[in-house]
Automatic annotation (TrEMBL):
Keywords: Cell cycle, Cell division, Chromosome partition, Cytoplasm, DNA integration, DNA recombination, DNA-binding. CDD domains: INT_XerDC_C (cd00798). It is found in: Cytoplasm. Forms a cyclic heterotetrameric complex composed of two molecules of XerC and two molecules of XerD. One of its GO terms (biological process) is chromosome segregation. Residues 4-97 form the Core-binding (CB) domain. Its main location: cytoplasm. InterPro entries: CB, DNA_brk_join_enz, Integrase-like_cat_sf, Integrase_catalytic, Integrase_recombinase_N, Integrase_SAM-like_N, Recomb_XerD, Tyrosine_recombinase_XerC/XerD. This is Tyrosine recombinase XerD. SUPFAM superfamilies: DNA breaking-rejoining enzymes. Residues 118-301 form the Tyr recombinase domain. The gene is xerD. It comes from Gordonia humi. Site-specific tyrosine recombinase, which acts by catalyzing the cutting and rejoining of the recombining DNA molecules. The XerC-XerD complex is essential to convert dimers of the bacterial chromosome into monomers to permit their segregation at cell division. It also contributes to the segregational stability of plasmids.
Length: 308
């Protein structure tokens, strides 16, 4: 197997992720970049054929990612990026072994570094309400769209890609629910609060008809009548936060984190929150419980006479 053969195998693996695994386009693109980096590393070692790779080679690649290459202005990667890159490499070797291209999966025993757990950033309820109010302060169809967009993001805890990907028919007003399509094309039905439904109704009646210019099913439209992009939706939130005087760094994911944290603060079960967020594992959702525990500690430390 030469370099061209490895190129073709990488292409076959990426096609496998797309067609058979249903991986998101962004994920496949990231894996492609990671595997090109891996292939360049093998070339520098003089390794051409995949069957020349050993477990030690993969571990050496892991070290190189964490160390970087100052001589060639290649920075060291953060543990989270190293972990993602190694996952791509492990998947590739597993695929090569399953296809019979190589005899053994030499990467299966190599474990990625465990990244430091960072607490999600969330906003107080009052700050979220200020941002939502600020989104609808001006007049016109864009203001109605912006208010409906942010209300829906917070009401459902949705990812920004899920919301801008919505079509009008995905909103079920009668049952106060919305169909969200998450990572890997997985669908979930999430309830929608009355304020978000009211904002959506105002947008659909008085806002969207003024923006639409062709027969598009998209729910949220830009000024040209096409589907609103993620970048534009992000800017809607940033502008509303600035008008509201919320000075913290705010992103669409901040509203998602706030949604989860506020639910748990209100007594919601972590498994219910897991389903609402579309997490495949409850372990991913449990990081939000750390936020609420920290909040309890702060309240206890300031309120209890014998806390210190």
């Amino acid at each position: 197997m030469n370099r061209a053969d490895v190129d073709r195998l990488i292409g076959a693996y990426l096609d496998h992720l797309t067609v058979e695994r249903g991986s998101a386009a962004n994920t496949v693109a990231s894996y492609g970049r990671d595997l090109r980096r891996y292939q360049e590393f093998l070339s520098r070692l003089g390794v051409v054929a995949l069957d020349e790779v050993t477990e030690g080679t993969v571990r050496e690649f892991l070290v190189a990612l964490r160390r970087g290459d100052p001589d060639n202005e290649v920075p060291a990667l953060a543990d989270s990026s190293v972990a993602r890159t190694l996952i791509a490499v492990r998947g590739f070797h597993k695929f090569a072994a399953a296809e019979g291209v190589v005899a053994d999966d030499v990467a299966h025993a190599v474990r990625p570094p465990r990244p430091a757990q960072r607490l999600p950033k969330s906003l107080p309820v009052d700050d979220v309400l200020k941002i939502l109010d600020a989104a609808g302060q001006s007049e016109g169809p864009r203001a109605l769209r912006d208010r409906a967009l942010l209300e829906l993001l917070y009401s459902c805890g949705a990812r920004i890609s899920e919301v801008v990907g919505l079509d009008v028919d995905d909103i079920d007003v009668e049952h106060r629910a919305v169909v969200l399509r998450g990572k890997g094309g997985k669908e979930r039905i999430v309830p929608v609060g009355r304020p978000a439904l009211a904002a959506l109704d105002a947008y659909l009646v008085r806002g969207r008809p003024a923006l639409v210019k062709k027969g598009t099913p998209a729910l949220f439209l830009n000024i040209r009548g096409g589907r609103l992009s993620r970048q534009s939706a992000w800017q809607v939130l940033v502008d509303a936060a600035e008008r509201a005087g919320v000075t913290k760094d705010v992103s669409p994911h901040t509203l998602r984190h706030s949604f989860a944290t506020h639910l748990l603060d209100g007594g919601a079960d972590v498994r219910v929150v897991q389903e609402l967020l579309g997490h495949s594992s409850v372990t991913t959702t449990q990081v939000y419980t750390m936020v609420t525990v920290n909040t309890m500690r702060e309240v206890y430390a300031t309120a209890h006479p014998r806390a210190r």
